[in-house]
Design brief:
There is one protein chain. The longest helix is centred in the N-terminal third of the chain and has 65 residues, at 167-231. Helix 3 (33-47) runs antiparallel to helix 4 (53-80), helix 5 runs parallel beside helix 7 (143-164) and helix 19 packs antiparallel against helix 21. Helices cover 56% and strands 18% of the residues. It is built from 21 helices and 18 strands. The protein has 714 residues and is an alpha+beta fold. It folds into five domains: 2-206, no CATH class; 232-332, PAS domain (Beta-Lactamase), CATH 3.30.450; 364-462, 2-Layer Sandwich (Beta-Lactamase), CATH 3.30.450.20; 487-555, Helix Hairpins (Orthogonal Bundle), CATH 1.10.287; 557-706, Heat Shock Protein 90 (2-Layer Sandwich). The radius of gyration is 68 Å and the shape is rod-shaped.
Length: 714
Amino acid sequence: MLTKLRSRLAAMSSVEYLPERVSMLYRLSGTDVPIILVAASITAFALWGYVGVNLIVIWFVWLGVASMVRYAMARIYRRRQPAAEDVAQWENYFCLASALVGAGWGLALMLIGHTPTSLQELTVTFLISSVAMGLPPSLAPSPKAFTSFILPILAPMVAMLLTFGGGLNTSTALLMLVFATVLLGLYMSNHYALIETLAYGHENTLLLQKLRVAEKSLTAALAEQQLIFDTAAVGIAFIRQRTVLKCNRRFAEILGYPSEEITGQPAQVWFQSDEDFMQAGSRAYARLAQGENYSAELPLRKKDGTPIWVFTDSRAIDAAEPQAGIIIGIGDITERKLAEAALQQTKERLDLAMQSSAISIWEWDAGRGTIYLDAALAQMTGDEPRERYLTLEEMAPLVHPDDVEAVRQAQTDCIKGLRPLYRIEYRLKTTSGDWVWVLSRGRVVERAGDGGALRMTGTNVDITQRKRAEVELLSALQREKELSEMKSKFVSIASHELRTPLATILSSAELLEHYSDGLSAEDKLKMLHGIQGAVKRMNAMIEDVLVIGKAEAGALQFEPKPVDLRELCRKVVEELRPGVAKQHVIQFEQQFERGNLNLDEKLLRHILTNLLSNAVKYSPAGSTVSLQLTERDGKALIEVGDQGIGIPVADQARLFESFHRASNVGNRQGTGLGLVIVKKAVELHGGTISIDSKVDAGTRISVRLPLAPVAKAT
């Protein structure tokens, strides 16, 4: 209760809503005058005869003066219309006027009632004062005005009654105080109700303002949305149950309808077939039912049947029931689709041309740091035809290791502007692990403001066939050169090696023809032996040439048969000993326990004969030539050693070239074919040959032949 009383007292002293309360104070002061005068007239009529006439007259005079004052102040206030910051000052004006009016009535009562003689006059005086207090309800908007009015009236009467003394006077004074307290309570209730009413009014005003602002915003938003809807560059429509309920102008234009005709049209009529409509609808509703947007590019048709392509994006208003309402937007992409088709056709033609011409396109983008490779390059490398984007680091493993640095340097020079064009031939790895040769050319097509390269483009051309042709051509040229050199050497050697035995044969034949009668039988035999030796020499040289020719032509046959290698070595040594027995010793040693082996006896004879003949030829008289046959690491090891002139290091690399002879052979006879034949025969057996030689310290030649059976080869 006390809390409520405090809150109401606080409300009375609050300046909240002061402008509104002061304005109401002045308005009521002007409008309640007629009612107060009517009430006063009825009261005077009822009290006529009970109170003195002078009291009623004074009361009416006072009411008239008070009403005029209040009416005049109301008029002044309405004319001046003071600003909100001046309302406190106008409240003070009204309080001052109220205090003066109240003091006037209090003084009148003191003059009339200074000698009260009966309870009736005192009671009547109190009632008249109470009727006069009918004015205060109009002062409810201002506690200051109420206080200023009531105190000058109440204070003189209570003071006068208490001054007269007596039980009746004191009781009447207390009764008037109680009545004043009740009146004050009523005033507080009225004032509190007024404050609440003003608060509600203020809230209503704010709500009304907000409502008006919201209404304006909503109206503006609706107008803006309608404007956007009507002028949108894409077609927008609201569709329910697959029928257009509302759409904008662009939607109708795209489908070739007048704006007023398209409303109510079923969506099915825009599709080129019922099957297309059902497929698109099933896909769309599946997505819309999940609360997702459905986006697609669809082939449709206009009202006149013209086919068009549109991009559509739609969403259901309620995912639980998509058919209840769908917002759909469409855009005409027919030109883009035609351009894409033309571009794809052009690209296919270009790809076909590139594939037919073995040309691929590449492009380097500095911003992304990648190289674009088209499908033609994948076809070159045997990969599945596809476009790829690779970084320089990913591209490096595809380039032959020997070419990586050269490719990087060429790219760097072109990017930095050191060279206008990028051109290099390098090897590219295929999916099978082989290498293809490509000719890569390009140039920088876009640079930044500071000169830095932004984009570089070019082509790759498969030049593998050209490279192979170049290699074959170089090989043929080298072979031709070698053949030319061989021919020159052959002519030189043949002219010497054939002329010498022919001269021997010719001279011996002439001697036998012209001087046979004077020659002894021994001399004739020597000449015949000389002719036979010369013929054998020529025959051996021709045989060597024929063997080399067969080997070069790939016609030298490898015909393995069971051969006893130990016995064959012994036979060859025994065959050579008679011819060299006077000057050289051929020593044969073997530690070989194998029996018959699958070898070519003819080729083995070439190997053994040539190695032993060379050892004897290039060794000094009286020296020993050794032939050793052993088994090592599962192979037959044949070693021929001598104590001859040796082979210079510079000549050792060319010992197996046809017609090449060491620089220190002097006038010793030979064709330079022996070791070549030996090497060919060893290789046909699948073996190897090695030479260890020092000048004037002798030579040792080692031949290793596999012991396992060797397949027949040509």
